[in-house]
Amino acid sequence: MITEQGRILELLLSGAFICQITDEDAWRYLKSAQNSDKMESQLNVLNRTLATAADGDVFFAAYQALGESERKVLGGQFQEISSNLLPLVEWLLLVQQAAGNDVPVTQGSAIRLNELQSTIEDTPAYAEQLEKISRYRLFGSTSTTLDGQVKQIFKRLTDLGYLIKPNQEKQIYLATGKIEYLYEVIRFIDETEALSLSEQADQAVQQGSLL
């Protein structure tokens, strides 16, 4: 039987972002300095380190030492994240606008799919924006209906770990800590906007903790 430490180690090595929303037990485990030190020792054996985002509220595994193969992996990941930023940011802005909020979507934000869909249906500009977003390669919707487009976007965001659906009987989604990580990537790109994408990727790799 796998231990809690082993379970969390597997999650981290699989690329998971652990936060209070996605896995509260694992999050509480890692919030303990003693436990996080144990996890760090386990990860170090595998050339990984326990990294954090959102002021220590989101945990993930990053490479400890960077050789050529690690740099290639991280560079590829950064390029992929960068290419997906536009659809993700446009979706986040649409949700914020449709909800009439000044506050952006953050970890723990509840998104009620039915309410969001109704607002978008009643506002032609939102519906047009949604259709555009759904066509991005990241979401890949081929649906001609707003309902199909919304559901495809939410399915992909759930598959990618940005959202979770705690109760399968209810159409309520919660934003995870991976959203906070996304904001950190956006800030990083903003700070290095004068650089080309390849140079940004190289800097991100050098920082290590970012990916």
From TrEMBL:
<dbReference type="Pfam" id="PF21980">
    <property type="entry name" value="MksE"/>
</dbReference>
<protein>
    <recommendedName>
        <fullName>DUF4194 domain-containing protein</fullName>
    </recommendedName>
</protein>
<dbReference type="InterPro" id="IPR053841">
    <property type="entry name" value="MksE"/>
</dbReference>
